Amino acid sequence: MSDWTNDELMTVSAARALSAARTCFVGIGLPSTAANLARRTSRPDLVLIYESGALGSKPTRLPLSIGDGELAETADAVVSVPEMFNYWLQGGRIDVGFLGAAQLDRHANINTTVVDRGPGRPEGRLPGAGGAPEIAANCGEVLIVLRHSTRNFVDRLDFTTSVGHGAGNGDRRRLGLRGRGPVAVITDLGILRPAPDTAELVLTDLHPGVTVEQARAATGWPLKTADAVGVTAPPTDAELAALRGLKAA
Predict the structure, then answer these.
(1) Four-CA torsion 139, 84, 49, 101, nearest 10 degrees
(2) Nearest to 9 by CA among 185, 236, 217
(3) Cα–Cα distance between 148 and 169 in angstroms, integer?
(4) Which domains does the chain have, with CATH numbers?
(5) Is 8 a catalytic residue?
């Protein structure tokens, strides 16, 4: 099973990033696919948590939304939404938050609310915040997964929905945010991580066959690179089989 797409490697890489997590607050879409893949491969005991109140969900297929009945039916427990946020999330009881984005800036701040469609056109409304601002603020750390293009990786957000690293290193502490914030952004071209001194996203890994120039051309700001840019490992046959089985279920 040697043929794979960069989208598949993006999802596999995102699942691998959960290999040390115990609990994961999961966003719908690409984050949910990656988190459920992790449960089927490297992290079978990973506790999946959804903002609708499902704790320890074990869906047999990818959920359509946070309100999908499969999440409640397969959960260890279902709690109220206020308890989910006030006790579990804001109480600092969740290791990793896994989010997607419509727009992302160089400090991993997220927009999922509205985009500017240009002069004379109405704003483009997006799905909105949901629980993402609280997830970004309170989980031990945050992973972000999205496709890499200048449409998504922008120099300036049209709207700030969820704070990543704010204006740079130290801004989360100044704002009183509990968690470490985004520690990795996983795309279909590679992986970016915040620089220790500035918290600006830096390209640290490329997927096989992708060049630094391609990644820079797909980024809306002058993308910096690590001193040594690594290459992500291709998906294994077992990872591909599990991912394709998950999508086919």
Answers:
(1) -60
(2) 236
(3) 23
(4) 6-248 (3.40.1080.10)
(5) no
d(CA 2, CA 164) in angstroms, rounded, equals 36
Strand ranges (E), the chain: 23-26, 47-50, 54-57, 77-78, 96-99, 103-104, 110-111, 114-115, 124-125, 141-145, 182-186, 190-194, 201-206, 224-231
- Using CA atoms, how far apart are residues 192 and 200, in angstroms rounded to an integer? 9
User: pLDDT tens-digit profile of 204-241?
Assistant: 999 999 999 999 999 999 999 999 999 999 999 999 99
Catalytic hit among 51, 134, 200, 239:
51
The answer to whether 89 and 65 have CB atoms below 8 angstroms apart is no
Percent of the chain at pLDDT exceeding 90: 88
Question: Between the CA of residue 230 and those of 155, 172, 192, 234, what are the distances in Å?
Answer: 25, 28, 11, 12
The answer on pLDDT for 118 being more than 90 is no
Do 99 and 143 touch, CB atoms closer than 8 A?
yes
- Taking the C-alpha atoms of residue 225 and residue 167, their distance in angstroms, rounded to an integer, is 19
User: Using CA atoms, how far apart are residues 161 and 112, in angstroms rounded to an integer?
Assistant: 6
Please tell me the total number of residues recorded for the chain in this structure: 249
